Amino acid sequence: MAIKADLKERDGRYKRLRAAMESEGLDALVVAGYGGKGERGYIRYLTDTHVWEGDPLILFPLDGEPVHVHVTYAAASMPDKLWVDDYRIWPEPQSEIIKAIKEKKLTRAKIGVAGMRKLVPAGVLEDMKSALPQAKFVQADNVMDRVRAVKSALEIKQLREHWKMTQRAMERFIEVVGPGMSQREAAAEPARIFRAAGVFDDLTTIHEGNFKGLPRDTPLKCDDAVSFHLELCGESGHWSEINVVCAFKPPTKLEQKLLNSERRALDEVRAKAKPGVTLASLAKTFDGVILEDGWKFDKPMWHYYFHGQGMDGIEWPFFTAMPHGSQDTSLEEGMVFSYHPHKDTIPSVPATRAPRIFDGFVITKRGAETLAPDWDVMWRIMK
After folding, report:
1. Are the C-beta atoms of residues 227 and 208 closer than 8 Å to each other?
2. What distance in Å separates the CA atoms of residue 117 and residue 115, rounded to the nearest whole number?
3. Could you tell me the CATH superfamily of domain 153-381?
4. 98-129 residue pLDDT tens
């Protein structure tokens, strides 16, 4: 990874966040992180620290310097120069955050909690409310989400670089996959590329026949189709999500028709995805193309058509056609999305050979630009 975040990038993020806080009347934020995989919260965005484990917290005041409290030193990567000078280690981070709130005379302040809905561990908020009864704690996930959703120019450069590496890893799988080798052997070849590029967190799945999941020590038959899926967290903390179907039989007329429909839908969505357009309207565009080509939809499935993507595998905003789970919004320049709308169709195509197209794109003034311009989203017909 050649493009690094620096203190200039930090200062830009802090300035945008403080403007959002001021508009919400917040005196401070308590910002949560989470030692998970695809969802780590907001620590990386504010500190450039890759959270490997633990549930860190940051006190981010409207005025003055932030305080970063981690459970242990087991942050997987720290910046060459700490973005937050006041870096503390404590087994229960809320204890140090409470102390810092008192030190900064914020005991009567309106304090937003970024991560209240999903990230703050049980008991943390109760501890803060109990210790600081005159402070007003409010949910502030939306404050962080909206700021983080619009990527800086540097972040977009990092994402483009990360996606190029992801393509190289995927192309390596296409080069090596063949009958007799195990699923793990086939998956190990692209892993050599992304591990060398600084990726140490990933979701790697393989789909052949009735099996779909983490690669196993099972020989590949390669007599029909093998689907390979990568979701990679790069050295800069940004995620990519890409998929390929290696077909060892040419597509049938029905399969080719659906492939062409899905490809046309991608082109239509890209053309429409401009600032001011909603995710829900993009979903209607996708559905409209598929229906226009003569398909009908089978039973609905729960998944996101589109979701924000950056320092979490899934970021706000996101859209699903199911009754629950959407957090739709209008697109803004600088937003980045993972694209993977699909529905089971009538007539049906076997799941192994269904054309699940994945793409990533950034919203510009002119519209959506793919993060993988050299990637062919169609099947690879193997020889």
Report:
1. yes
2. 6
3. Creatinase/methionine aminopeptidase superfamily (3.90.230.10)
4. 999 999 999 999 999 999 988 998 899 999 99
